[in-house]
Design a protein that fits this description.
The chain has 461 residues and is an alpha+beta fold. It has 2 domains: 9-190, 2-Layer Sandwich (Chloramphenicol Acetyltransferase); 223-386 and 404-459, Chloramphenicol Acetyltransferase. The protein has 12 helices and 21 strands. The protein has helices at residues 56-73, 117-120, 159-173, 202-207, 235-245, 254-276, 293-296, 320-325, 328-340, 345-358, 435-444, 454-460, and strands at 2-4, 7-17, 26-29, 41-48, 80-83, 89-93, 98-105, 134-141, 146-153, 208-210, 226-233, 283-288, 290-291, 311-312, 315-319, 363-365, 378-381, 401-405, 413-419, 427-434, 450-451. The strands form 5 sheets. Strands 1-2-7-8-9-4-18 form a 7-stranded mixed sheet. Strands 15-12-17-19-20-11-21 form a 7-stranded mixed sheet. A 3-stranded antiparallel sheet has the order 3-6-5, with no helix packed on it. α5 (235-245) crosses α6 (254-276), α6 (254-276) packs across α9 (328-340) and α6 (254-276) crosses α11.
Amino acid sequence: MVSGEGFIVSVSKVEVVAPELPMQEHWLPLSNLDLLIPPLDVSVFFCYKKPSSMSFASMVGSLKNALAQALVYYYPLAGEVVTNSTGEPELFCSNRGVDFVEAVADVELHRLNMYNPDDTIEGKLVPKKKHGVLAVQATGLKCGSLVVACALDHRIGDAYSANMFLVSWAEIAQPNKPIISAHPCFRRSLLFPRRPPSIDHPSLHDMYAPMAALPPPKFGVQSEPLISRIYYVTSDHLNRMQALASSNGVKRTRLQSFSAFLWKTVAEAADAAAGVDGKRKVVAKMGVVVDGRKRLSNGDKNMGSYFGNVLSIPYGGKQVEELVEKPLSWVAEKVHEFLEMGVTEEHFLGLVDWVEAHRPVPGVARIYCGHENEEGPRFVVSSGQRFPVSKVDFGWGKPVFASYHFPWGGDAGYVMPMPSPIGNGDWLVYMHLFKGLLSFMESKAPQIFKPFSWDYVLSRH
């Protein structure tokens, strides 16, 4: 039983859902790009209004049955991560199954404070994964609505991979969709290093370093707490950002424009704080996650269904005074410049080779690690625009709200913009940043960073 934010969550049952057709136990190595991911869990949750013809028990039964069938295709999710003889993580496909938590909460859906997911979601509506690589929780609410949440070991797959699984699971749950639309691929040979390797690309050394060569990420150690917030950003404001970020006939993407605006706003907050202490030289760093599947889908490689991590994090660092003084179009140009380093096939092939050259010493993205001679905020933006909200329909309707939840515990922030379930071009933006930065953004641009409100969202329909 867990209480908080005015409601109590009572866990009624925890069981293991195993694949319907167990496969033979075997080992599946992590790819070199998987080895760049620290041991973190990422969570995602979906909120559904009460269907007129289904009880909580029948919905849970449907989820479990479909999950058992989905695990036949996604069998690594029924395994566990272990350490091999070289000290590296490896996936043991043991068919242990997935922990499934049934719970009830004495709160109505429209009373859930999604603006503050640390109190409402964390530790209550999303499961704490204790075993295996995936955990699921289904929570029935007082009004009959349902919250379905998952926690996944990030070393096993990225958001693209999680999205594939969620869509397949939902398709299997629907009686009119007997087969899944896409079969996952676990061929690690698609990410084998080259012979001979090539790690001369300058982006590799600018963006990554062996863990032993840098101060490690300070997971859970910071002077000011990082907290999570969910904001609602309208399409009108996104369009204005895009117009201001574009110049000289070059139209920036919405993600680049929003990232530039966020970088500039964070710099303003850091500049204001530095002014109190005598205008120290402060550098604000921002990284943007790049999915390498399209970059690597050349020749005989088809990465569209690949399940695993295919990520890189190019980043830029600028003195806060410069980011504050320059127009948004200049900041967007700098975002574009550092992104160019990480969007090529050669970069991703080189990154695979770079990891191989340093194994078994783990590598780390430099954006996650501070430097003893530098100070200033650091954060990463990860696009969730492919978040398949409308496709995660288990047979009782589309979600009315859905979000990733990633309070990962480092001292670098994390931001993920996702499409609104309304489908009108608005965004939901999950932010995990220092409390002071979030307070500054809310006061600086309250019309843009609107705290999530059920009443406001309903007014946008």
